[in-house]
C-alpha cells in the first residue's frame, strides 16, 4: 500500500498497521507494562488529592474544628502523595521513553535490514530520498507515536478515576460531566476523518522533499557546471512549498479541533457547575465549599486528559501514515534473489556455462535473448557492444543482483541458484566502472570490515600496484578518505577498488568497464595490476576500449540482448563484421586524438 496512492484507511487497515507497529514492542513488553501500571497509580493519586482537600474544607474548616495537628497531618498527607506521584511519574516517563527509543531502534534496524535485502528493481523504481525518508523520518515519527498509547491510556484511566471520585461526591454534578463525552467522541470522529488525509499529504510532501534534496546533493557538480542553480532552487522551493501548505493545513485543523474546542467544553462545564451551586445558595440550601472546589478542580482534570487524547490524534494520524509506509516497505515482495533450499555449492575452478539465458528487468521488455556461452577455467572473455546491448545485464544476472527469467547459469557444473549468495559473491570479484569509497581510511576501504590483517591489506595493495601512491601519502594506509573518496583521483580510487577485490582472492574476476573513466597514461600504469589480477582466474571484461582486450581468449559482441559475433580478436577482424567496424572506428578516433595532442605539443 503505497502512500502516494492512498492516505485514508479503513478500520481494518488501521488495525493491520497497528499490528505491524506493535510487533516491534514485544521485546520490551515489561517496560511498557510497568508504565501502564505506574500510570494507573499516578491517576489514582491525582484523583484522590482533591478529595483530601474537600474533606479538610467541609469536615474540618466547615465545622470550625481545625487544629495545628489536623492541619499538619492533612498537609503532610497531601505533600507526601504529591511526592510519591512525582517520583512514580518520573520513573514512568523515563522507562517509557527508554523503551520507545529501543523499540524505534529495533524498527530502524529491521527496516534497514529489509532495505539491504531488497532486489535491485526496487531501487530502480524508488528515489533514494524516499528510501532515506522511510528509514529515518518515518521511524522517528513512530517514536512519537508510542506516546499516543500512553496518552490514551493515561486519559482513559484519568477519566475513570475522576468519574468515580465525582460520583462519590455528587452524582448529579458527575452526570453533567459525563454528558460531554458524546460531544468529545464526535470531535474525535471529525478530527480523524480530516487528519488522515492531511497527514497523508504532509508525509508524501516530506518524502518528495527528501528525494529532491538527495537528488540535488548527488548531482551538485552537474547543477553548478551547467549553471542550473536557479532552476534547482526553484524546483526545491516548489516541493518545499507543498510541504509548507500541508503543514499549514494541519495547524489550522489542530487549532480548531484540539485544545481550543476542549477549553470551550471545559468552560461550559464550569459555568454549569457554578450555576447549580449559585442556585442552591439563592434558594438557601447548604453549599459544600469543598465539593465546589473539588468539582472545579475535576473540571480541568476531566477535560485535560481528553485534550491530551485529542492532541495525540494528530500524532496518531501521522504515525498511521508512517506506519503504513514502513509496512509497505517491509512487505515489499521485491526481495533480492535467493538461493535454493539447501544450497551449498561453491566456485572451485571457474568454469562458466550460460545456457539459454533470457532476462527482463520489468517482466515486460526482454533485454537478454537466449544467451549461450561456455567460458573455460582461466579464460579471459570480453563483452563488447553499444550501450544497451546487454553487457552489464549479463553481469547483473551472474552476480545474482536480479533473478533471471529463463535458462540457467552454471559454474563448475552447478547452477548459481544452488550456491549461497554470500559464497557466490565471495568467489566472484566485481570491479565496477565507478569506484565508491566509504568515509574512513584507506585500510578500512580495502578491508571493508572483513577479517583481514593489516599485512593482508598491504599485500593486496602491492599485488595490484596500489602501494606506491598509498605509501607516498603522509598517513599511508591510515590516510583519511572523505565521503566518496573525493580527495583521490579516479585512477587511485580504481586501484583501491582492485585491492579491495583481490584481497578476497576470488576465483572469477569481472571488470565492468573498470578503466573507462581513466586517462590513457593512468590506464597504462594500472594494466600491470590488472594483469596480476587476471593470472590464474577466469576473467570477464566489459570493454570500453577495444585495444585493451586484444589478448582476450574470447570476444563476445552483443546487440540488443543477442550475441551476434563471437571469437578472438584476429578471427573477428578477419571476419570483417560488427567488431571489425567498431575496432576500425575506435582506432581511427584514437589516432586522430594522438595527432591533435602532438600538434598541440609542437605549438
TrEMBL record:
Residues 352-585 form the ABC transporter domain. Signal peptide: none annotated. It comes from the Bacteria. InterPro entries: AAA+_ATPase, ABC1_TM_dom, ABC1_TM_sf, ABC_transporter-like_ATP-bd, P-loop_NTPase, Type_1_exporter. Residues 33-318 form the ABC transmembrane type-1 domain. GO terms for molecular function: ABC-type oligopeptide transporter activity; ATP binding; ATP hydrolysis activity. One of its GO terms (cellular component) is plasma membrane. Its main location: membrane. The keyword Translocase does not apply. Keywords: ATP-binding, Membrane, Nucleotide-binding, Transmembrane, Transmembrane helix, Transport. Gene3D superfamilies: ABC transporter type 1, transmembrane domain (1.20.1560.10), P-loop containing nucleotide triphosphate hydrolases (3.40.50.300). It is a multi-pass membrane protein. Pfam families: ABC_membrane (PF00664), ABC_tran (PF00005). The chain crosses the membrane at residues 32-53, 65-88, 148-167, 173-191, 255-279. PANTHER family: ATP-BINDING CASSETTE SUB-FAMILY B MEMBER 10, MITOCHONDRIAL, ATP-DEPENDENT PERMEASE MDL1, MITOCHONDRIAL. This is ABC transporter ATP-binding protein. The lineage of its organism: Bacteria, Bacillati, Bacillota, Bacilli, Lactobacillales.
Amino acid at each position: 500500500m503505497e502512500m502516494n496512492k492512498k492516505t485514508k484507511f479503513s478500520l481494518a487497515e488501521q488495525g493491520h498497521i497497528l499490528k505491524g507497529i506493535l510487533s516491534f514492542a514485544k521485546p520490551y513488553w515489561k517496560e511498557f507494562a510497568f508504565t501502564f501500571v505506574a500510570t494507573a497509580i499516578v491517576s489514582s493519586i491525582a484523583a484522590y488529592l482533591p478529595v483530601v482537600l474537600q474533606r479538610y474544607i467541609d469536615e474540618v474548616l466547615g465545622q470550625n474544628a481545625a487544629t495545628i495537628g489536623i492541619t499538619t497531618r492533612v498537609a503532610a498527607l497531601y505533600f507526601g502523595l504529591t511526592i510519591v506521584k512525582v517520583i512514580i511519574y518520573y520513573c514512568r516517563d523515563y522507562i517509557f521513553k527508554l523503551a520507545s527509543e529501543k523499540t524505534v531502534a529495533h524498527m530502524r534496524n529491521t527496516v534497514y535490514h529489509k532495505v539491504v535485502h531488497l532486489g535491485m528493481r526496487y531501487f530502480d523504481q524508488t528515489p533514494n530520498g524516499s528510501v532515506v525518508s522511510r528509514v529515518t523520518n518515518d521511524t522517528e515519527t513512530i517514536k512519537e507515536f508510542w506516546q499516543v498509547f500512553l496518552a490514551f491510556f493515561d486519559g482513559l484511566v484519568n477519566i475513570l478515576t475522576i468519574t468515580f471520585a465525582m460520583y462519590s461526591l455528587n452524582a448529579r454534578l458527575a452526570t453533567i460531566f459525563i454528558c460531554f463525552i458524546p460531544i468529545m467522541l464526535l470531535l474525535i470522529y471529525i478530527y480523524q476523518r480530516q487528519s488522515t488525509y492531511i497527514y497523508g499529504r504532509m508525509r508524501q510532501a516530506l518524502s518528495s522533499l527528501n528525494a529532491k534534496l538527495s537528488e540535488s546533493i548527488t548531482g551538485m557538480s552537474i547543477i553548478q557546471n551547467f549553471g542550473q542553480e536557479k532552476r534547482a532552487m526553484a524546483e526545491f522551493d516548489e516541493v518545499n512549498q507543498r510541504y509548507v501548505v500541508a503543514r499549514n493545513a494541519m495547524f489550522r485543523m489542530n487549532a480548531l479541533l484540539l485544545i481550543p474546542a476542549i477549553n470551550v467544553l471545559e468552560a461550559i462545564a464550569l459555568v454549569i457547575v457554578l450555576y447549580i451551586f449559585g442556585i442552591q445558595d439563592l434558594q438557601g440550601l447548604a453549599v459544600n465549599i469543598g465539593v465546589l472546589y473539588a468539582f472545579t478542580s475535576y473540571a480541568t482534570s476531566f477535560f485535560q486528559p481528553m485534550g491530551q487524547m485529542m492532541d495525540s490524534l494528530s500524532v496518531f494520524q501521522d504515525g498511521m501514515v508512517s506506519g503504513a509506509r514502513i509496512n509497505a516497505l517491509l512487505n515489499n515482495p521485491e526481495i533480492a534473489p535467493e538461493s535454493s533450499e539447501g544450497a551449498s555449492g561453491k566456485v572451485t575452478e571457474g568454469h562458466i556455462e550460460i545456457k539459454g539465458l533470457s532476462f527482463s528487468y520489468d517482466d515486460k521488455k526482454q533485454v537478454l535473448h537466449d544467451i549461450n556461452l561456455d567460458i573455460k577455467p582461466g579464460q579471459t572473455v570480453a563483452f563488447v557492444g553499444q550501450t544497451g546491448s546487454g553487457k552489464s545485464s549479463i553481469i547483473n544476472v551472474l552476480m545474482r543482483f536480479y533473478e533471471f527469467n529463463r535458462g540457467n547459469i552454471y559454474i563448475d557444473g552447478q547452477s548459481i541458484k544452488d550456491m549461497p549468495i554470500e559464497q557466490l559473491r565471495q568467489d566472484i570479484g566485481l570491479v565496477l566502472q565507478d569506484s565508491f569509497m566509504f568515509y574512513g581510511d584507506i585500510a578500512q576501504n580495502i578491508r571493508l570490515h572483513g577479517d583481514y590483517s593489516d599485512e593482508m591489506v598491504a599485500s593486496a595493495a602491492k599485488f595490484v600496484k596500489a602501494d606506491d601512491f598509498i605509501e607516498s601519502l603522509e598517513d599511508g594506509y591510515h590516510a583519511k578518505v572523505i565521503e566518496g573518496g573525493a580527495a583521490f583521483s579516479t585512477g587511485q580510487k580504481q586501484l583501491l577498488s582492485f585491492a579491495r577485490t583481490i584481497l578476497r582472492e576470488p576465483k572469477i574476476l569481472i571488470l565492468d568497464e573498470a578503466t573507462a573513466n581513466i586517462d590513457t597514461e593512468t590506464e597504462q600504469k594500472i594494466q600491470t595490476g590488472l594483469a596480476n589480477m587476471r593470472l590464474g582466474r577466469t576473467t570477464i571484461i566489459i570493454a570500453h576500449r577495444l585495444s585493451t582486450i586484444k589478448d582476450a581468449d574470447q570476444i563476445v559482441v552483443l546487440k540488443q540482448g543477442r550475441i551476434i559475433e563471437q571469437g578472438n580478436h584476429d578471427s573477428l577482424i578477419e571476419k570483417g563484421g560488427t567488431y571489425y567496424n567498431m575496432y576500425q572506428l575506435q582506432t581511427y578516433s584514437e589516432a586522430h586524438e594522438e595527432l591533435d595532442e602532438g600538434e598541440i605539443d609542437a605549438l
